[in-house]
Amino acid sequence: QVCKIADVIAYINHDIDDAVRAGLVTENDLPNSAIAILGTRRSQRINTLVCDIVSYSWVVSGKGGVGEPGIGMNLSVLQATNELRQFLFDKVYRPSLESEGAKKAKKAMQLLYSYFLRHEDKLPREFGLLNDDKERKVADYIAGMTDQYASRLAEEISR
């Protein structure tokens, strides 16, 4: 529960920052009803979420009231968080899948995958130690690449 809720806090705020920096959305595009509850700035949103989780979890743990132990958020904060998540899906994640950059990245991944399946000897040696499945080794190797490294390597391979 703790890891899942910590991921929600981190990803929502990080993805909002990335989307604003990339010019996909502006701060003014964020849903007013969610921002009114969570805060306009990143630090405010994180503080609101953390404080709410601590407060809610204290009550349901039996320390401040009665109930089953658990980690969660009060309903209004949960709804605001879900509204921000939905906003990100509608305005950032889904449209990004159809962008030219996404198509280029998909093509690069396919190129890298087929290349390393044909040239398993080009994989770092440590990828053969834990798994004998060639497809898994290749997928694990590609998954560990940074975006920049994968793009550069795909470009080199395609020459």
From TrEMBL:
Residues 73-155 form the Phosphohydrolase-associated domain. InterPro entries: PHydrolase_assoc_dom. GO terms for molecular function: hydrolase activity. It comes from marine sediment metagenome. This is Phosphohydrolase-associated domain-containing protein. Keywords: Hydrolase. Gene3D superfamilies: Hypothetical protein af1432.
